[in-house]
Amino acid sequence: MAAYSKEFILTELFCDANGEVTMKGIVDLVFQLVANQEYDWPYEHKLRGYNWIVLSHHFACQSRPRLGDKVRLETGIIEVNRFFVYRYYHFYNSDGQVVIKGQSQFSLMDLEARKIVRIPDQFQAENSGLKAERPYRFKKNLGEPDLSSEARVQYTEIDANQHVNNSVYLNWVINQVAGTFLASRAVQAFDISYDHELGLGQAYQLASRIEEQEDSAQTWHQVLSGETSCARIHVDWLSRDGN
């Protein structure tokens, strides 16, 4: 399957108060790109009664595009095995330079049984022969958090799959971190692992741990429903003075 690309203009929907594309905006853009590609797939690649579910993302930013910028996004399949598909993403600026690179891991779910199933042969045939990078290895538990909050899932956070939309977790992380921290730090890279669904009205806890250095920082975040881990997020930050 050939690489697929499309141009986007960055509107306020994808950017923060500083005018920079957000983590949520990056994920929303790549999902729009993948959806557009799937509409163009041949009939034999369109699976009725099944849905692709994302298990993890990794993104690294050389620089962050800004409000009003035109960016070209490109995606393609790197590796396919019996149960996982790995996709890459490149964000190109107007000069044709790659400013953001990313990768996602997907599986295929039987919607009626709500179980992950084997990837059909026609997709396994799309294997590029390359090896994808393996997802970030999160610890099972975050440990003692520096910040913690509790809330319930709101109606506007649910998507058509009847669970919290994948990119919403990244907004929760941003809202958890202090405004002064965000004013002095910019996202350099982030990873997210999706562990378990959250539904409408469900209570959850967000625990965060922060490690700061002079010109950089790392934060780890875990979304929990009781003892069940729903998502884990890791963010690398750089000082804005160091960009």
TrEMBL record:
Highest taxon in the source lineage: Bacteria
The Acyl-ACP thioesterase N-terminal hotdog domain, residue ranges: 4-125
InterPro entries from the UniProt entry: Acyl-ACP_TE_C, Acyl-ACP_thioesterase_NHD, FATA/B, HotDog_dom_sf
GO molecular function terms noted in the UniProt entry: acyl carrier activity; fatty acyl-[ACP] hydrolase activity
Domain Acyl-ACP thioesterase-like C-terminal: 148-237
Keyword field: Fatty acid biosynthesis, Fatty acid metabolism, Hydrolase, Lipid biosynthesis, Lipid metabolism, Transit peptide
Similarity section: Belongs to the acyl-ACP thioesterase family.
Name of the protein: Acyl-ACP thioesterase
